[in-house]
Amino acid sequence: MEIVYSEKAVKQLKKIAKSDKKIAKTIIEKIESFANHTDSNFDIKTLRGKYGDLKRLRVGSFRIIFEAETATVFIYEVKHRKEAYND
Who's near 8: CB < 8 A, 6+ residues apart? Predict the structure, then answer.
């Protein structure tokens, strides 16, 4: 699957990488792993409310808000769990 990052997600990943390169690398690896093996066991939930039918992938204390279609994974946000659902 192809991975498409929103401008917001890229900015958030860069901010995370400034403070902790290891966790940023782990987040990217987990996203790539999900895109290549969508049938594997990942901690994914469908969101409700303002996020509609988007999904979230949990990577440690970070949440990746995304949408998966047949050939593409759209990454919308990458946030710490304390901030992920507050916007």
Answer: 76, 77
84 versus 78: the higher-pLDDT residue is 78
| pTM (two decimals) | 0.88
Domains of the chain by residue range: 2-80
Angle at 63 between CA 9 and CA 7, to 5 degrees: 5
End-to-end CA distance of the chain: 29
Give the architecture-level CATH label for domain 2-80.
2-Layer Sandwich (3.30)
Instruction: Identify the residue whose tokens are 């902790």.
Output: 20
Mean pLDDT of 10-16: 95
